[in-house]
Records
---
Amino acid sequence: MLSSSSLRCRAPSLLPNPNPNPNPNPNPNPSILLLRPQGRRCRCRCRCRRFAPPVLAMDAAQPFDFESRASDLLERQSKLKIAIVGFGNFGQFLARTFARQGHTLLAHSRSDHSAAAASVGAAFFRDPHDLCECHPDVVLLATSILSAERVLRSLPLQRLRRSTLFVDVLSVKEFPKNLFLQLLPPHFDILCTHPMFGPESAKDGWAGLPFVYDKVRLADADDSLVRCANFLDIFSREGCRMVEMSCGEHDESAAEIQFLTHTVGRVLAKLDLKSTPINTKGYEMLLKLVENTCSDSFDLYNGLFMYNKNSTELLERLDVAFDSQKKELFGRLHDRLRKQLFESSQNLTGSSHPESLSFSKMLSSSSLRCRAPSLLPNPNPNPNPNPNPNPSILLLRPQGRRCRCRCRCRRFAPPVLAMDAAQPFDFESRASDLLERQSKLKIAIVGFGNFGQFLARTFARQGHTLLAHSRSDHSAAAASVGAAFFRDPHDLCECHPDVVLLATSILSADRVLRSLPLQRLRRSTLFVDVLSVKEFPKNLFLQLLQEN
Ligand code: NAP
């Protein structure tokens, strides 16, 4: 027994498959292999269209071919006759790869999937008796979890060879393991598996994707071991990450990995989320999650819940976590802030200073600053510019002298160009140079935390002058991007930034804005916020900032 099958057992991992044949004529018995006449039908008289290979008259005369013929033989011996029971979405998905690897395929299902079967070269059987009489090496159960028991009970097991290997691919594992152990006679081998991917998530191949398996019961015979190894090899050949783990362990982890994912996807689907022009990457991932999880049947999802005891506990944990998250949020939305939020927006609606008026004034005084960066391309961004927003001063200051505002922002006036008047032809390039420098801003970032620092890196790279102020001491982070850090907001405002960028937390925005000595700023200062909500800072600005 060892001699006839030990080679098969090791063959797949030892020998690469240089030219997988989509329509192989495998024969696991090497002694018969060389005796049958060419093209004659397999003796099992099944409909699986398996032909015996030809007699090669030259075999004996070609002793030097031995190695390549032996490897060819081993390759053919690794091919299995696989009966897929449950030929739905996932069964067909697996079949495509099995067929490509050259295995002989039989299929059986409740519905008529004969066309889909034919498309991958599988023989389709309406009657499970016909299927079992074909003596598959492997019976692969790929029905829904919910129907698995009924389908298994409907199979005429007595018609199968006694050494058949039963495999399942159900997404829960304790349940089919117990079902197999309970319903299958002891001479059948049992392998419980879960390819942790599907037609959607593995449409570009199976490489690197996890394949979980548990050798629940294998006879201590070479045939059994070889068959099982050959089946597992289908997945390792595709590059799957093979993970041997017990069915119990699988179900514990799968509740979180799989049931949680599907639940979140299906809950989000109920929100009917739409793609918007301001999608973030995170949001795109949520949309993808909805698409992936909802493309599986509800039966599958229901099976994950009903047949994995860990799922119930997980659903409860999810409920508790959601409640606690809500409590945390609502707890922080204390009365004062809530009152402020809603009252301020009401006041503004009836205000004598319509938003449109304030905004247009603000826009008019700062329109150049707002538009300059987008109108003017920046052909050669200067990491150490000496910007000055006032063109009249720009041409009068001596080179390298400190900015007259005596601030700590280390802003220097640009050089006086003595040749200006004498070089009329330079006008265009100098004008564009001037505009480029005018597009540089002195930006005061108020709230120099995570996001403020993140923005600062790009502002600095684009050559803007940066000032920073924050509750905590971020002077080191500020220095690393060339920004001047101010503990005292009075010092910051006295530097007369062109832009005050509010990057505090949403919750502290009101307090921080009120703490700024606005009277020290130039009247035409532009206030910008980057808060992740928008109505609130708009109302806050309109309420607290003077019109100019
Ligand atoms: P599914 O809805 O879980 O199962 C569909 C299959 O179950 C079809 O073959 C269907 O047969 C059969 N079936 C359903 N109800 C039946 C009944 N009352 N009687 C007889 N057969 C019945 O969807 P699936 O995606 O194809 O999944 C098949 C199995 O693979 C499931 O156990 C699933 O957990 C597992 N799995 C799926 C994925 C995946 O990504 N989809 C990944 C890993 C594992 P007919 O089509 O003939 O009606």
---
Amino acid sequence: MKKYNLPVILLKGIILLPHNTLKLEFDAKNLDNNVIDMSLLFHDSYILVVSEYKENNTKIGVLSKLENILQLPNGNTRVDLKGIRRVNIIEFLNFKSNDPLESIVSEIEIEKVENEQIIINKLKKELKIYVNNIPYISNGVLSIIDKENSLDKFTDLVVPNIINNKNRLLEYLNNVSPVSRGEMLLKDIYEEKKMFQIERNLDLKVKKEMDETQKQFFLREKMKILKEELGDSSKENDFDKLKKRIDDLDCPIKIKEKLNYELNRYQSCVSMSPELNIIRDYIEWLLCLPWNNYTTDNNDLRQVKKSLNESHFGLKEVKNRIIEYLAVNQMSNNKNGSIICLVGPPGVGKTTLAASIAKAINRNFVQISVGGIRDESEIIGHRRTYIGANPGRIISSMKKAKSNNPLFLIDEVDKMSSDYKGDPSSCLLSILDKEQNKYFSDNYIEEEYDLSNVLFILTANYIENIPEPLKDRLEIINLSGYTEYEKLDIATKYLIPKIISKNGLKKEFISIDSNTILKIIRNYTKEAGVRELERQLDKIFRKIVTQIVLDKIKINKLIINEQNLSKYLGKEKYKYSNKTKEQVGVVNGLAYTPFGGDVLPIEVNYYKGKGNLILTGSLGDVMKESATIALSYLKANYKFYKINYEMFENDIHIHVPEGAIKKDGPSAGIALTLAIFSALTNLKIPSDIAMTGEITLRGHVLEIGGLKEKSLGALRSGIKKIIIPYDNDIIDLPKEVKSNIRFIKVKNFKEVLEVVKHE
Ligand code: ADP
């Protein structure tokens, strides 16, 4: 292989490939000037150009020729270096001396390329596409290569036009195989094209987004102007206000996202669309709910007790149980699973007590009544797809509560019913369940709402009617009816001062003595609680105020007494005669109704018939069975009781007034039996005697419930003696009841009869 030596020029930062020309200017003082001289003098203008020299690594140089040499006035030399072909560098000479650098090189045999034209054509085709697509590549490169038919030359000419990367250019320089360089080029073209496409897509996307926001901005501004022209900029203003409210709202991120989503829908909705108001209402609901607002609990239970005493008379046991409940709640950090349920007749202070608790522990107070609810959507709302849909009562109350941890009173849980539209009581169960109510979901609101911080309190009139699964979860606290004297205390200490200040009167001006209040209690009300009493007192004071305002009279002192009471309240509504009356076929039973205890007269008649038993007065199944048992017992024991058996061939009619009120339960058993007996045997029964007790087919008298309420009802009605089952206790009955009524315990019906005959 032919070897020869050549002067050397080292290039730094530039790479010269064969067939390309480089313009260089040599410094007059520089050693390189000598290299040029050497080349011109001894090597016929040939010179070796070495790009990016690296010791032990640089193996390939480019045999080049110096052309167009120009001496500049400042002594510098300008030349064109024209690369000719690659050569192998065998060694460098004079590297460490001050003499011009020289090298010994040998020629490289160029490999023969098969299918050269096909490869070139392919490259040309791709290159054309590439150049046409990419704006920053000059298509001058196409004219350079157009007529080129040698792959070796083709690649070297094209590469510097496309590749910028120095290392990649060095790879091209060091690659002596034209075919391999062709492949490299094709790969690079593809790569560049791909990169360009990605960049372009990115550009397009960004541009599109910018265009879109610009467009929206433009349209919005235009719309604003149009609306202002038309005097209708309300929606736009509304949008801005809503946006601000959403930004300021303290709520979970999910809710904020939902609000923004709905706000955009609102924005894009045309003014005439019915959707508009639906979306607007929905946004308003989400904005008004207390997501993260809390009140701070007052944990000082002494103070709580004090304020409960201030608001409610008596109820000592009830208050203690509430304080205990609050203490446990405090210790367990509100995780106490049970829920208080206040059970008692109307007007005994359940609702107001709950409100007082709320005030005392510094929680907001809200209240709903679930009495009569059949459809669970009343509690958990309707889907937004329904026209006129709204959230249910729970969410509506949370909005009113304005805090996330109110005291929430659910009234009348014993009066829910269920039908095909769902079971409100099971729905209520999931609302009360601490495990589930964290994720409470209202159909309308759609998003979860956390109810776990709410303190729920329930109320019911009648424990028996609370759905069983619900009852299981409740901590029942009984509030029984009040005695007359308790009512008197409530009236003097609580109700009258409250009403006087409500009506803007002064305490000193009005005097109403205890006897007058008792008269109101006895003759103008008949109730377990004090609601009606409060209403009557309210009526008196309203009349006084009207009188003062209308007649402009000056009053120094106004006395309300038993004599002038009717001036304010009209005729007495209830009268009690103490005269003992005796009747045949009428017996006083005792009932425990949702309105408290009451006397329940049972009437029996018989007439010629076929021995049928006729029952009227809205009696429930259990009470009907009691009547059948009563009759069977008397039939079976007719000899013992000396009843003429033929009497049973008559039709016997039992009626329990008042007919419209539903009655049930087994506790009228002895009263029913005695009423039948009295009718059939003409036995007179004193009307100041009442009785309660279940009867068996053998005539045994079994224990009953609700004695406290029943005896209070009896006291109100002027009953003097009550026959009760032997197993019932009277220890817990109010003192007033025990001192006014005589309780006589019986084990069986025979003893009932003894009592009636001999008392
Ligand atoms: P309920 O919810 O049991 O039907 P409320 O709480 O509505 O009864 O009470 C009716 C009225 O009676 C209220 O004005 C209440 O202040 C008054 N009240 C009931 N019990 C008491 C009591 N123990 N002390 C003072 N006021 C009472």
